[in-house]
Write a structure and sequence with these properties.
9% strand; two-stranded antiparallel ribbon; Non-ribosomal Peptide Synthetase Peptidyl Carrier Protein, Chain A; 66% helix; 136 residues
């Protein structure tokens, strides 16, 4: 059983999948940073200079005690963070689309390689035999 597990783990597909998961995490971090640090300030500039991440609707205010300590935090709809997430999804989707498009383009070039000539038909084989016999 240990040998079977080792064989399974060492196959190319599992290793490729592990690498893909690690890269996806790294790319996700980069895209999230791109959205929050570059895209959202640009979009915020068109919406009055405010950051979307701070946009909330307060459903219920926070409950404080006499000393100002929070007993119950405010109930908030954080629609700005949700907009950040949607933009993040769109960017990731676009990047994946471009990667798949580039992959398909290289795959298509490989498929266009000249195929082997088709095998001769029975008629062609007979004619070849007749020609060879006539040469003798």
């Amino acid at each position: 059983m240990l040998k079977e597990f080792k064989k399974f783990i060492m196959t190319g597909n599992v290793i490729d999948l592990a690498i893909a998961v690690i890269l996806a995490g790294a790319v996700g971090t980069v895209v999230k940073g791109f959205v929050s640090m570059i895209m959202m300030p640009i979009i915020g500039m068109f919406t009055g200079g405010a950051s979307f991440a701070d946009k909330v609707i307060e459903l219920a205010p926070a409950v404080l005690d006499a000393e100002g300590n929070v007993l119950q935090p405010a109930n908030l709809l954080q629609y700005g963070a949700w907009i950040d997430t949607i933009i993040n999804l769109i960017i990731v989707g676009f990047v994946l689309f471009m990667i798949v498009k580039a992959y398909n383009k290289t795959k298509k070039k490989q498929e266009e390689a000249p195929a082997a000539p088709p095998a001769p038909t029975m008629d062609q084989e007979l004619l070849t035999e007749i020609r060879d016999l006539l040469k003798k």
